[in-house]
Amino acid sequence: MMKLLLRFSGYLRNHMAKRQAIEERADDVEHWRRDPLAHPAIKAMDERERADLPFSALRD
Q: H/E/C letters for each residue in the chain?
């Protein structure tokens, strides 16, 4: 019985961690939509690499 409870609690912890990660990712994506230059990949670029990025004045 104890083994079953430990497995179930492990499953719940894993499930909640995955759910929290999905919610954090959704928050990050929303933040990047508001401020595209805040994306970690773009922050890691130097000025010349950022200058080569396409720019569109139209936003969704």
A: CHHHHHHHHHHHHHHHHHHHHHHHHHHHHHHHHHCHHHCHHHHCCCHHHHHCCCCCCCCC
